[in-house]
Structures are given as C-alpha cells and as structure tokens.
Amino acid sequence: MLNVSRSGYYAWRKRPLSKRERSNQELLGMIQKVFQTSRRTYGSPRIHEYLRCRGFVCGHNRVARLMRLHKVVARASQRRYPITTQREPGAIPAPNLLKRDFSAEKPNQKWVTDITYIDTAEGWLYLASVMDLYSRKIVGWAMSDQIDSSLTASALQMARITRSPRVGLIHHSDQGRQFTSAAYRQILKAMGCQVSMSSVGNCYDNAVMESFFATLKTECVTEQYASRDEARRTIFDYIEGWYNRQRMHSALGYHSPIEFELLSGH
C-alpha cells in the first residue's frame, strides 16, 4: 500500500535514531520534567526560558512544537464566580494615586489588594491578598467563608507584620465595603499609608492583582474543592510554596518574587 519494500522496511526498523531525533527526545524529557515541576502550569514561553537559563540551547518554536505534538498543555481556568465588590452606601472613596503605574523602585513602596472567591462543595471560600508591586510578592493573605472587613484586615495585618513598611506606603484597592470600612481605614491610618482606590467598576486600575488571581485560578484552583479545609491547604501551598518562592515571573526577568528581592539586595 505504501510502496515500501520488505527489506527497506526492516532496514528502517534497525536504523538508529538520527542525531536530531535523539536531541528531540532528550529535550522532550526535559520539557516534561519542567512541566511537572511547575505543577502542570507552565506554557512554552516559561519552559523555554527555564531551560535557557540553565544552559540548554533551544528555540522557543521548537519547544512549542514538541509540547504541541506530545500534548503537553497547561491547565485552563474556571468560569463560575460570585460578586465580591459591593460599595458601602455613603462611603467616601479615596482618589486613585496609583493611576495604573504598577512599577516600584523599592519594596514596601506600593501595595495592591483585592478579594477573590474559591469554589468548594461546602460553599464559597474567599481569599484576600496583598501584593508588593516591587517584586509581585504576596506579602499578606487571609481566607474565610465570610466576605467582610475582618477578612481584608487579617490579610493587611499579616503584610504589616511580615514587611514592617514605613510611613508613606501607597495602599491601593477597589471601593468595596471591606476596604472602606472604619475598621480597615483605621489600620491604614495607624500604618501611615497613602490610601488609593480604583474608579468604579474598572478592573484595569488594579490589573496586577487581577492578573495574580487569574494565574491562581489557572494554575491552582482548577476545579471545585471537596471542602474549605482542602482549599485552604492547597492555596497556602500554592502561595507560600510555589508562587512566592519558585514561580518564574515574566515581569521580573523570569525570577520568582523572593529570588528577585534577594538578587536586588532587598
């Protein structure tokens, strides 16, 4: 059917793999190892950068082709979601001091914070996170089955204790009641923060935190958890064991947040 002779077929079977094919098999093995190490979250750009930084010479297109041929595909995100931002009637929002400038020259200069939801069979679990824009590190976080000011206050207090920021730190959030409450604003005042808030319904004003939550939903929260306790354990491991310490961040020259701070001397 294929117009191949019997002798030609068996000669092909016995022929050793070409140098290129052996190289592809070696590269595929490394790709699969990095992919598993990344918890099945890295796509071809990060895997290529990971290999390049460790001295393995290969092109991005080659990595992408081998991943496509062998179905090495990163996780997709979930879609179901509740409403997390509700304004407090009569609350006076702070001006937007950040103005979508997500750069920072040093740690504890600009923090952003927000709340997201985690789907469990027992109901929603809410996650409040505080990020330092200098290194994209999550410096404070808290989880609860209640979406209230005590949730956001717990995350902020964690950040305050672990980072000890100086007076003048810009703290940016949306206008949700969890951030405009008297209790939360009192903590910000005690810290000497400059309070900044996004305009109404504009996710781009806090795009970096939105990006972190999207990454979390793609790489970690990919399906409904059986319980809130299971979700808490998994998310704790993701933030402290993976994201802050190991995950390569393109905005940081493909370093992890902690690695970036160490390399920059902070």
Question: What attributes characterize this protein structure?
Answer:
266 residues; alpha/beta; Nucleotidyltransferase, domain 5; 2 domains; elongated
Tell me what the structure shows.
The protein is α/β, with parallel strands linked by helices. The chain folds into two domains: 8-69, no CATH class; 110-263, 2-Layer Sandwich (Nucleotidyltransferase, domain 5). The protein is built from ten helices and five strands, in the order H-H-H-H-E-E-E-H-E-H-H-E-H-H-H. Strands 3-2-1-4-5 form a five-stranded mixed β-sheet. Strand 2 and strand 3 form a beta hairpin. The longest helix is centred in the first third of the chain and has 19 residues, at 19-37. The radius of gyration is 23 Å and the shape is elongated. The N and C termini lie far apart (68 Å). The mean pLDDT is 89.
CATH class of the largest domain: Alpha Beta
How many alpha or pi helices? 10
What is the residue-averaged pLDDT? 89
Q: From the coordinates shown, what is the CATH architecture of the largest domain?
A: 2-Layer Sandwich
What class do helices, strands and sheet pairing give? Answer: alpha/beta
Most strands sheet: 5 strands, mixed
Number of strands: 5
In order across it, which strands form the biggest sheet?
Answer: 3-2-1-4-5
- List unreliable stretches of 5+ residues: none
Task: State the distance separating the first and last CA atoms.
Answer: 68 Å
Radius of gyration: 23 Å
Strand content: 5-15%
Task: Supply the CATH superfamily name of the largest domain.
Answer: Ribonuclease H-like superfamily/Ribonuclease H
Task: Count structural domains.
Answer: 2
- The share of residues in helices is 40-55%
Can you tell me the overall shape?
elongated
CATH topology grouping of the largest domain: Nucleotidyltransferase, domain 5
Order of helices and strands: HHHHEEEHEHHEHHH
